[in-house]
Amino acid sequence: MLHSMASPIISLSFNPLFVNNKRLGYYFQFYPLMPITCNSRTELRRSFSMGRTAHSCTVSGEALVENRRDLNPRKSRKKVLRETPEMNFRVNLDQCSKNGDLTEALRLYKEAKRSNIQLNVYHYNILLYLCSVNSDGSAEDGVDFVRLEKGFEIFKQMSIDNVEPNEATFTNVSRLAAARKDPQMAFDLIKKMKEHGISPKLRSYGPALFGFCKKGMADKAFEVDSHMVENEAMAEESELSALLKVSSEVKRDDKVYEMMHRIRATVRQVSEETAGRVEDWFRSKRAAEVGMEKWAVGRVKKGVVKGGGGWHGQGWLGKGNWRVVGTGMSETGVCQSCGEKLACIDIDPKETENFAKSLAKLANKKEAKTGFVQFQEWLQLHGPFDAVVDGANVALSNQHSFSFSTIKRVVNRLRQISPTKKLPLVVLHQNRVTGGPAQQPENKKLLETWRKAGALYATPVGSNDDWYWLYAAVSSKCLLVTNDEMRDHLFNLLGNSFFPRWKEKHQVRLKPSIDGINLHMPPLYSIVIQESELGSWHIPIVVEDDLETP
């Protein structure tokens, strides 16, 4: 179906090409403001001088036991510390935080003040958190009002006690302000952080930003957004989605366009909630009114080339009502609704190089004791490779037992399709190549073949092999065979800008079948919001999916 200038199309793509285990959630988690009770707990450290005493006298067994206890001051000192009013207060307050028990926390607070226990920022942050959590200022019985006022009273007392606040303190009080429906106060508190030499975090801005958006105060929300950019607190999906919604509500088509592209660059696949807000915009009367009826085709094409494909950034193209439909994509990226082929967006080689450097820096920091530098040197000698295999993940893909034959089949298949016919690199932990199934004669022979060919690397004991196979694939600019969803804390360190794009273009997934192993290659198109030269938009949505759905 061809697009007329008067009838642009937004197609909502409900499925990426391949998924193994609901993988799309990795890219698009919401980050609600988490409990802020200070993650690090200061330990009371004491140094003890331990000496040896020679006894020449004879004593009974009972006395010896008694003397041994006396000579172990560490345990007795810890016991004394646990029994101090200060330590009891902290332990009990921690329990209140865990249980969300504000009533008991306030009782402990009053008791501590009566006992002249000196409160520090950690104690105050727990109290402020408990006052701010689950408060929206709407409780009819006044419970929320009392909770909020108590929070502000505690914050005031903190100042009287000359306790220096930290980022968590200001964020908690900002939550109190937002719950009192005062986003301006929440924003003012963020600005005060600078006076205390504190850099705001993304979570610090949530109360003010969402508060202004909820009230429809778009200009103030944009001001908060600008402040976030200045302080390098990069907005994620929940923030950008809220800004898109308020921009649409106040008919700021220029800001809607900006937010669409920021979501494209940051989020890629959108949640169903964000998709609903996108639909609301395209179905609105304002969306039908804006846009160029005639545009410079050459300039649009130039914008596409400059942007690397998939978008042009020249503004809304076409006028008239938009047709909004749900659709799917073929394996080659052809829209089943409009027939337009989506682009495969290039990754800048310089970006890959910079990512490899940052990955190596992180890996060397985390793997210092196990010699990641030696692996880099080994890779310089034996690489680059056309593919890297996460050996343990592949061997356990049948979910029954560790199978070297599965790795062998994958290795042989990759060698067949390799342009250089070179063996892929297999990364396995040291324990996997020395014990268990590795001791079987045929597996020993297989491992030795790979080792002699420079196609096997055994990561040292105590290491995390994830760093090794990921770095090898990134630095070699090659395919990575693994079903690992790469969602844990290690991969979160890599950020959500470049890594998802790299992963989409390089990860090969596998699925056991009756006749062997099926390799699911990276898609031939980029699963990301795309703006076409004809003015239409395609928005991929996060859904539960599997490898069998095209």
TrEMBL record:
InterPro entries listed in its UniProt record: PPR_rpt, PROP1-like_PPR_dom, PRORP_C, TPR-like_helical_dom_sf
Positions of the PRORP domain: 329-545
Q: Which GO terms describe its cellular component?
A: mitochondrion
Which cofactors, by name? Mg(2+)
What keywords appear on the UniProt entry? Answer: Hydrolase, Magnesium, Manganese, Metal-binding, Mitochondrion, Nuclease, Repeat, Transit peptide, tRNA processing, Zinc
Family in the record: Belongs to the PPR family. P subfamily.
Cite the GO molecular-function annotations of the record. Answer: metal ion binding; ribonuclease P activity
As for subcellular location, the record says: Mitochondrion
What does it catalyze? Endonucleolytic cleavage of RNA, removing 5'-extranucleotides from tRNA precursor
Put simply, this protein is called ribonuclease P
Which residue ranges contain the repeat PPR? 166-200
Which top-level group of life is the source organism from?
Answer: Eukaryota
EC no. given is 3.1.26.5
What general EC class does the enzyme of this chain belong to? Answer: hydrolase
Provide an example Pfam family for this protein.
PPR_long
Q: What is its main location?
A: mitochondrion
Domain PROP1-like PPR: from-to ranges: 77-289
Specify the taxonomic lineage. Answer: Eukaryota, Viridiplantae, Streptophyta, Embryophyta, Tracheophyta
